[in-house]
Amino acid sequence: MLIVQKYGGSSLADETRIRTAARRIAGLSQQGARVVVVVSAQSDTTDQLIAKARLLNPRGAAREMDAYLAAGEQLSAGLMAMALGAMGCQAVSLTGWQVGILTDCVHGNARITGLDARRILRELEDGKVVVVAGFQGISPTGDITTLGRGGSDTTAVALAAFLGADRCQIFTDVDGVYDRDPRKYADATRYGRLSYGKMLQLIGGGAQVLHDRSVELAKQYNLTIEVLSAFSGAPGTLVGP
Q1: Rounded Cα distance, 225 and 166, in Å
Q2: Residue 153: closest CA among 5, 3, 1, 2
Q3: How buried is residue 173: exposed, middle or buried, by Cβ count under 10 Å (0-12/13-18/19+)?
Q4: Do residues 9 and 39 touch, judged by C-beta distance below 8 A?
Q5: Which of 31, 38, 97, 203 is the most exposed place for a label (fewest CB within 10 A)?
Q6: Does the global pTM surpass 0.70?
Q7: Closest CA to 149 of 51, 47, 234, 218
């Protein structure tokens, strides 16, 4: 079984949360699953990087911003691979370009166009958990590109689709998709299952649980996304046909 999991910034905010995620991943690997993990930058990292860049150049070139901002996810990938290693689980961290995520040339808002899966398949064949820096890829000109805020969701869905994964799980700080923000409204209702169209409608209304392009890509490949809490064992929400 091949499982793709994505962990958002709040799920990796500190070493305790990284270890919690790593234990879940290591458990799957020990049970015989092949696991690909996509990670976002830790909470607030991207905003902090943007603020530092603007102190030097308020209108920095889009290409350079992509090269710079991609570092946030790379830091998370390295930390996750080291956490897994400390648990006796073989793991390798890879950037978007190392894992073969191909995009167009639109810096700051690139679209994924394909995957050169040779490296990732080789690492899986060697029995390793592959930890991928989300939110990034490489353009036809060989430049680092980023996919827009929330783009790590799209990285995970793209990898699941192109690799033919059995499951695609998005771990976040809420246990599924709600009709309203459960962190603000105590009477918010969780959906057990949503169609792609309904999910896109919620995103259009301001829901930030999933990146819109991840849902569009899942629809294109008829892939079901599981939205789950990184902190509880609750069932979550299925987004699919």
Answers
A1: 11
A2: 5
A3: middle
A4: no
A5: 31
A6: yes
A7: 47
